Amino acid sequence: MSTYRVLPGPEHFLPPAAASMGIRLPNPGEAHIHGVIVPEEQAYEEAARQFLMAKVPTIFPGPLVLWAWNEKAAKKATAVRHLFETLKECVQPGQKPMLIPMPDYRPKYPKINPEIEINPNHPNLTIWHNKIDCCMFVGVHCHQANLSLKIIRGGTSCYTIAMCAQAGHEDAMLSFRDASVDKIMKLAETIKRLKGTVEPRLSAAKSH
Amino acid sequence: MAETKSLIGTQNKKGQTYTDPWYMLNEAPRTPSFFTGSEVIKEAIRRASCDIMIAYPITPQSEAAALIGELFAEGYVGDYFRGESEFAVMSQCAGASFGGARVFTTTAGPGTMRAMENFPMWAGARLPIQMIVTCRGINSPLSIQPDTLEISYLLNTGMMVWHAETAQDFFDWILKGFIVAEEPDVHLPLALCCDGFFVTHTKDVVQLTPADMCLPPYDPYRSPVPCMDMECPPVRMMRDPFVMKSNYISYATHASWQQEVWAAVERSRKHAIHWLNGLIDAENTDADIMIVASGTAVSQGREAIRMLEDEGVRCGLVKIKTLRPWPTDEIREATKHAKHIFVPEFNVTGWLAKEIRATIPDHHRVYAGPHVCGGMTMPPEIIVSEIKTALGMKTFSLAGRGS
User: Fold this and answer.
1) For residues B295 and B269, what is the distance between their CA atoms, to the nearest angstrom?
2) Among all residues of chain A, which has the CA nearest to that of B185?
């Protein structure tokens, strides 16, 4: 078993892909935290705790939930919105939940507007600008999510969560797999249940 | 968009039933058949629910390509045409795969080399194309005979590379290859290699799955990159441009992109172990002498082991099934007791021996040979001779009859 752990950075000028360090993806019914396979139940608790602890907990919805391209996507988008509203209700004064879309994957030149979007080619800009210290990817194609998660790990101290509809992401610090409406709703329920039990961090993410 | 799983149990236009792949390949009854490797490729593709095959003639894969043309005429393959060259074929394969098709092609030797630019592009674009490589000589002077040098050029493309020993491997691995390649956490092209002529043009008994069962179709909506469906909003952003502007962050993105491709090769390890029953097969791993090989060199090694046993020399065997992902831990474990490791190969450079030397501790144990190339056969006697020479035992020469 690998001794490598997927932890908040800044890790390295060019951090390795976690898979190349021996981190393996969870099987159905499991998740991973920092690269260690855990029962999915444990991941709900930890993801909720990280959200409630963060100064700027942020959800990054990607194209697969931003467009109602099929019925499932529309339902998932509603669940993501519910998760965000729940987060807003459950945080304490001084915490600032955000919902910032990743509408597409093309590099934006000369520069993206980090206040309104995140881009997989330079996700660190949005993290730095908004001082985001915990984020969750949902509805982002797996390849692009892995690019972003690795760049975030390389250059920021942001805690990353992936709510992946496929096999999960080793490059996130915490990853669910087979994401569904039910799983997103369950995360919202867990946040609600833990409301008031988690002490928020006093400072936001390191910017560089 | 119907989900693939929901199609299991239904029939395609040829009356074949979309079948759970695990049942089809591991539990369904098999029928013994006496086929050439080329005919086996045809039989595998008959059951593979392929949307398109693009062909170009080059020995020794031409027969397989032509046979799949027959499948197209019979209605088992969605589309089929001949490209203008191997480079064109591989580019056209990319186009079809971008469009969400299950794509199959075959090539060999100089054809592989001519098309080489496309292979890292396929991997970078996460296209799960399956390409059969029926290996032959690539250098001048021209040789159409078996030689595995071209495999070494494929090892760093980001494709999965598997090396079949027999026609049975070929039949099973073509079907299993589509399943592994299309996993969303993998989603990479597969180069399924065999030694030309030795496998493609010799007949063998092959256990075939029922012809009325086929794989479920490819579901492009499980792809880790946007599917090019012109009707659905996510496609409006199309695929990412491969040429980005030059500044720091685009270098970082490109670096991460490359890492992600190789991460996907790593992820294929789990699936390949599951479907191929391990990345290697190993026998007698407690022996002092091991033969480690891939492709038909395994068969020759197996016969050499039988001959050595007759002389009281005990020898183990490692058959390497996947070259990418590379079975690092498996080879280390299987060779940990060995004092002498022999790597017979059908190429001049001994690329497999180099890989093994880079993998195991105490690599002075590795003997890079025997080598043959350019279409020469590898009689098991020369493996025996190599081993006996290294052990200081009296042996014979196959070089000639002497004066």
Assistant:
1) 19
2) A167
Neighboring chain A residues of B240 at a CB cutoff of 8 Å: 105-106, 144
Question: Does the pLDDT value for residue A96 go beyond 90?
Answer: yes
Look at domain B9-222 and name its CATH class: alpha beta
pLDDT of A207 reads 47
| Closest residue to A106, CB basis, from B126, B237, B259 | B237
- Tokens 């042996």: give the residue: B395
Query: Could you write out the DSSP letters of every residue in B15-81?
Result: SPEE--HHHHHHTS--EEEEEEHHHHHHHHHHTTT-SEEEE---TTTHHHHHHHHHHHHHTSSSEEE
Is it true that the peptide bond before B210 is cis, omega within 30 degrees of 0?
A: no
Phi, psi of B47 (to 5 degrees): -100, 5
Residues in chain A, total: 208
Report how far apart, in Å, the C-alpha atoms of B399 and of each of A94, B75, B125 are: 84, 52, 49
Residue A115 near residue A130, CB atoms below 8 Å: yes
Task: Name the pairing type of β-strands A36-39 and B289-293.
Answer: unpaired
Are residues A167 and B267, on separate chains, in Cβ contact within 8 Å? yes
- Hey, where are the domains in chain A? 37-194
B14 C-beta neighbours (distance < 10 Å), count = 14
Q: In chain B, what residues touch A63 (CB-CB under 8 Å)?
A: 226, 233-234, 237
Residue A171 has pLDDT above 90, yes or no: yes
By CA distance, what is A167's nearest residue in B? B185
DSSP state of A16: P
Interface test with B, best of A6, A143, A147 (most B CBs within 10 A): A143
| Alpha-carbon gap, residue B355 to B343, rounded angstroms | 10
Q: Which amino acid is at A165?
A: A
CATH superfamily of the A37-194 domain: TPP-binding domain (3.40.50.1220)
Q: Which residue has the higher pLDDT, B241 or B96?
A: B96
A148 SS3 class: helix
Give ipTM to 2 decimals.
0.94
Multiple choice CATH, B280-390, 3.90.76.10, 3.30.200.20, 3.50.50.60, 3.40.50.920: 3.40.50.920
Q: In the predicted model, is pLDDT for residue B294 greater than 50? A: yes
Alpha-carbon span B373 to B137, nearest angstrom: 8
pLDDT tens-digit map of B252-287: 888 999 999 999 999 999 999 999 999 999 999 999
**Residue B219 token pair:** 């579901």
For residues A119 and B176, the model is more confident at B176
The stretch B226-237 carries a mean pLDDT of 61
User: Model confidence over A180-200: pLDDT tens digits?
Assistant: 999 999 999 999 999 999 999
pLDDT tens string B332-383: 999 999 999 999 999 999 999 999 999 999 999 999 989 999 999 999 999 9
Residue A179 · residue A70 · CB < 8 Å: no
**Residue A106 contacts B, CB cutoff 8 Å:** yes
What residues of A are in contact with residue B254 (Cβ under 8 Å)? none
Which residues 23-82 of A have a C-beta within 8 angstroms of B?
Answer: 24-25, 63-64, 67-70
| Domain spans, chain B | 9-222, 280-390
